[in-house]
Amino acid sequence: MLYADRTDLSDFIANIPKVELHVHLEGAMRAETLQKLARKNHIDLPVRTLDEIKRWTVFTGFPDFNEKYILISRSIQTEQDIYAIAREFLEGQAAQNIRYSEVTYTAYTHCKQAGLPISDQMDALQEAIQWGERTLHTRMQMILDIARETSSEEGVLVAEAAVRNREKGVIALGLGGNEVWNPPSKFRKAFSVAREAGLPCILHAGETAGPASIWEALEIGHSLRIGHGVRCLEDPALVKELRERQIPLEVCPTSNVCLGIVRDWKSHPLPRLIQEGLYVTVNSDDPALFSTCLNEEYRKIMQELECTEQEVRQLVKNGIQASFLSEGEKTGLVNELDDR
């Protein structure tokens, strides 16, 4: 079905139940909240008004984004801050009819910057998770990620913390940040720690670096999914591998445009990824920083990339099936989607 009216299109997207697999908690913090926390915690941002913050979060590329992301993270100083941004995030997800989210969180950054023990951070997140389930009927679980700029030894500390906090909602060990000069092989030992404990790994790869990064994510990180992965198309052998193994790709279209991974919306490879038979999911990445949300991602791929309703429904199903939900929960969501 084609939607000539934007309201009808938005209603269709809003009404279907969704999950989100690739979204960063710190990157979902609204400008108003960033402003409030920076003032409360005496963090000197280079911008002060909301308009200035919104202009400041227009990025020249990934290095610029990464530098500002670290500064934004510094505004989070207490367990109460973490609880507040998690509640805010869950409210935003529930408003979009997102029933379940797997949220990437860089706990070690706050441990280093603010001296917050990871266990205390996880307690705050667990309290927010329970509130969201009880009040909003939306759920989230956490992917505790290693920032690529940290040392390999610090990566092991993150892996050990992820393993220790499984009962507090940690479902996987992640790897994020700038791929250039920071390949998965740098954190080989951290991935081994996770695997030996039975904790899955989910790595960002194929965003700021090419196919070699994805190969390492698969072969060294044993990544169950690939965060981003859009540059797999540069290597036909890799495309074949991903297709045959049906490794889910966590594609984040607006993020790719905002960070210059692709030139513009019309250049985005999502349609080709689908045509190649790859397992594609759609996600928002850092929604507050890119002025987007998951519903907006689906609207844009229909309007800008001419994805059909049938394709969007399949992308939503892909997200459900690639999640860590139980088989019963997946079946329930897919059945509800089919009924809408």
Describe the structure.
With 340 residues, this protein is of the alpha/beta class. The chain has one domain: TIM Barrel (Alpha-Beta Barrel), CATH 3.20.20. Helix content is 51%, strand content 13%. It has helices at 6-15, 31-40, 50-56, 62-74, 79-95, 107-114, 118-136, 152-164, 188-196, 211-219, 236-245, 253-258, 270-275, 294-303, 309-321, 327-339; strands at 18-24, 98-105, 139-147, 170-176, 201-205, 226-228, 249-251, 280-282. It has an eight-stranded parallel β-sheet. β5, α10 and β6 form a beta-alpha-beta unit. α8 packs parallel to α9 (188-196) and α15 (309-321) runs antiparallel to α16. The protein is globular, with a radius of gyration of 19 Å. The protein starts with 5 loop residues before the first helix and ends with a helix.
Q: Mind sketching the topology for me?
A:
Elements: H1 6-15, E1 18-24, H2 31-40, H3 50-56, H4 62-74, H5 79-95, E2 98-105, H6 107-114, H7 118-136, E3 139-147, H8 152-164, E4 170-176, H9 188-196, E5 201-205, H10 211-219, E6 226-228, H11 236-245, E7 249-251, H12 253-258, H13 270-275, E8 280-282, H14 294-303, H15 309-321, H16 327-339
Parallel strand pairs: 1-2, 2-3, 3-4, 4-5, 5-6, 6-7, 7-8
- Count, helices: 16
Termini separation (Å)?
Answer: 14 Å
Structural class of the secondary structure composition?
alpha/beta
User: Mind telling me the CATH class?
Assistant: Alpha Beta
How much strand content do the residues show?
5-15%
Q: What's the main sheet like?
A: 8 strands, parallel
Estimate the global geometry from the Cα principal axes.
Answer: globular
Radius of gyration: 19 Å
Strand order of the largest sheet: 1-2-3-4-5-6-7-8
Tally of discrete structural domains: 1
Following the backbone from N to C, one meets helices and strands in this order, namely HEHHHHEHHEHEHEHEHEHHEHHH
Name of the CATH superfamily: Metal-dependent hydrolases
Low-confidence stretches: none
CATH fold-level assignment: TIM Barrel
Report the average pLDDT across residues. 97
Helical proportion?
A: 40-55%
Quantity of strands, as a count? 8
Supply the CATH architecture.
Alpha-Beta Barrel
